Amino acid sequence: MVIQGRALSPEDIGLIQRLLVEHPDWGRTRLSEDLCSLWDWRNANGRIKDMAARTLLLKLERGGFIQLPARRRPSSNAFRNAHAPWVEHTTAPLCSALRELMPVAVRIVESGSKDLQLFNCLLDR
Questions:
Q1: Who contacts 109 (Cβ-Cβ below 8 Å, separation ≥6)?
Q2: Could you give the 3-state DSSP secondary structure of residue 38?
Q3: Residue 3, H or E segment
Q4: Can you name the residues that pair with 2 across neighbouring β-strands?
Q5: Which of 16, 41, 62, 79 is positioned for an S-S bond with 36, CB 3.0–4.6 A?
Q6: What are the φ/ψ torsions at residue 8 (nearest 5 degrees)?
Q7: Separation CA 78–CA 18 (nearest Å)
Q8: Strand, coil or helix: what is 5?
Q9: How far is Cα 41 from Cα 88, in angstroms, rounded to an integer?
Q10: Do 36 and 49 contact (CB within 8 A), yes or no?
Q11: CA–CA separation, 82 vs 76, rounded Å?
Q12: Are 56 and 41 in contact (CB under 8 A)?
């Protein structure tokens, strides 16, 4: 199977499972960094592909191949943890053919506008 652009063999998955068993004190970062070192998985600048490895590990966990240790702290990514505030709006379904709704227009919402707040609310949900 190929995940994150890397072909994984059953031996590769076995290696990850072994690391998890042999090092129960390791967090996800340590696991991904050691995995990159063992595989010599680096980018064009020679830096380890730590984020690619973390994503690979998450995909393996979602696929039921491994069980990662619990997160030690919440994500520091402010955008990932942020939620747009709720904006009151109609939620009634549209039960019409598109031709009955014409003309339909697409427009850019202005920064700071109520439309932008609504857009962000809907996108967040």
A1: 115, 116, 119
A2: helix
A3: strand 2-3
A4: 7
A5: 41
A6: -110, 130
A7: 33
A8: coil
A9: 48
A10: yes
A11: 11
A12: no
Strands (E), 4-43: 6-7
| Cα–Cα distance, 56 to 64 (Å, whole number) | 13
Question: Can you give the pTM of this predicted structure?
Answer: 0.60
Place of tokens 């990514």: 77
How many CA atoms within 13 Å lie on the side-chain side of 106? 0
List pLDDT tens digits, range 87-124: 999 999 989 999 999 999 999 999 999 999 999 999 88
End-to-end CA distance of the chain: 33
Q: Which residue has the tokens 């995940």?
A: 3
Please determine, for residue 80, whether its predicted confidence score (pLDDT) is greater than 70.
Answer: no
Token reading at 11: 């031996």
